[in-house]
Amino acid sequence: MIEDIANTLDQAAATGSSVEQISLSQSITLPQAYEIQKLSIQQRLDRGEKLVGYKMGFTSRAKMLQMGVDDLIWGRLTDAMHVEVDEVIDITKYVHPRAEPEIAFLLNKPLSGKVTKEEALAAVEAIAPAIEIIDSRYTNFKFSLEDVVADNSSSSSFVIGEWQSKDSNIDGLAMNLRVNNEIVASGSSNDILDHPINSLVEAARCIGAAGEELKAGQIILAGAATAAVALEPNQTISADVANLGGCQFRTKA
Ligand code: OOG
Ligand code: MG
Description:
The protein is α+β, with helices and mostly antiparallel strands. The chain has six helices and 13 strands. The protein has one domain: Fumarylacetoacetate hydrolase, domain 2. 2-oxoadipic acid binds next to β1, α3 and β5.
């Protein structure tokens, strides 16, 4: 049953088609949901994709309120999910994509289990402004906690801006999401668990509890500072994070 759900979600993601929420027809536990996520991402890895990091979700109130889920979640990132800065994506390949402004950490040391903020920062090689493109595979972007976790926490694509020094200040930075240069969502880096480094601490804890570790060279997305915004054709979407800079991508007309 777990395998069947994992296959269904993998195929939905691969073909950009929606499926019914699992929780409408059967009940799964949170550990089972993470097991489904792992199996469905394994299908991608079996097709040659590489694991490049992890994403944290529901690390801000804005996101919890938008989606009605208030537990931290995480998902896996593969190389095929990476969208280059200025790349033009075809949103017909997605189900109902949304964009959200984030901060990314690049690691130069492994991290796992209970770590302090200082230990987390000591494992950071660089920090960058980022955009996550989330795309729930469930009809109408509706899900329970277990549903979204099984669906790799809606992870779909991500854009990373230029890497900045690990010593960059990331405390209380204004973060904006713009569509065609107009601000559509604004927040602060401290909307992410009071400070984005806390998200890396949580990533080490959660992923450690799942028996995995964050590795040198991996990217960790800290989670969105604002609600996500639905994508439409022919848009330029950018995120800027005060002194960290910004990044952008476009959608095909
Ligand atoms: C779940 C993913 C949440 C974030 O940054 O909070 C997330 C969703 O909103 O569909 O990526
Ligand atoms: Mg996100």
